[in-house]
Amino acid sequence: MSAPGGEPVILASIPSPSEGVWHVGGFPIRGYALCIVVGILIAIVVGDKRFVARGGKPGQIADVAMWAVPFGIVGGRIYHVITTPDDYFGDGGKPLDAVKIWEGGLGIWGAIALGGVGAWIGARQAGLAWPPIADAVVPGIALAQAAGRWGNWFNQELYGKPTDLPWALEIDPEHRPSATPDAATYHPTFLYESLWCIGVAALLIWADRRFNLGRGQVFALYVAVYCTGRFWIEALRVDTAHEFAGMRLNNWTSILLFAAAVAFLVISRRRGDRREPTPYRVGREAASETPAAEIPAPESPAADER
């Protein structure tokens, strides 16, 4: 159906914001940055609550985040630039734009990898073991991703193929790909991934309670389940991306990480790994803060296998 002027009539769709930047007193407030900040706060609050339940102290996750967050932002940007170099260093590219994080472009795997390095540094300084921290914060990280994806909505970026589904996303002409300039609505892949990440967080919390996960198992489960969703969502996207053997690089990354995460889970569960009795590093003074009498004896792997 078309309007008298020839423009298609959209019966139902998700509108995009008319603008993604607001100026308050001459200072720009960007929707993308707000979504990232909200996500970080969610991750810290959820992670802190779960870490205390594992035997840690309130505020320790915030201390670790002081290292993890800046490392993660830098890592996410490096991954994005490496996987889409033509936008910055190709013909007509703008190298200086590589540092403009506020314009969008944070790769989750770079953020997780380098953010993990920052978390490890912060954990060592606090006398904490890294696996309990990873297991405690990762549901919050999934929720942070769910919030952060709405930044793509504000920037009108990283959407999917054209579609006329009732939940299609309206994209302004200046943000549409050159291949489909007349298509007004596209798959809202930001919304698909946001909803998927909420489901991932719920699954992690349930599985952690049900199966007494620990020693990095919650984190590994996150990688496996997130990669499953990211694979099909990535296949819908139409933004420029490097390909290898006919498939987007992020899809190959998802396959490899999924396989590694599943292998880790199988091996870890078979050898009887269960939740750590304390989140503190063995041999550090902080470990003495948890009296030995309060530390439950580890479960017998043989008993679990019966």
Topology:
Elements (H helix, E strand, L loop, with lengths): L20 E4 L2 E4 H23 L6 H24 L2 H4 L18 H19 L3 H19 L1 H6 L13 E2 L14 E2 L2 H23 L5 H20 L6 E2 L2 E2 H22 L30 H5 L1
Antiparallel strand pairs: 1-2, 3-4, 5-6
Describe the structure in your own words.
- With 306 residues, the protein is mainly alpha-helical.
- The protein has one domain (30-174, 187-283).
- It has ten helices and six strands, in the order ββααααααββααββαα.
- It has helices at residues 31-53, 60-83, 86-89, 108-126, 130-148, 150-155, 189-211, 217-236, 249-270, 301-305; strands at 21-24, 27-30, 169-170, 185-186, 243-244, 247-248.
- It has a two-stranded antiparallel ribbon.
- Strand 1 and strand 2 form a beta hairpin.
- Helix 5 (130-148) packs parallel to helix 8.
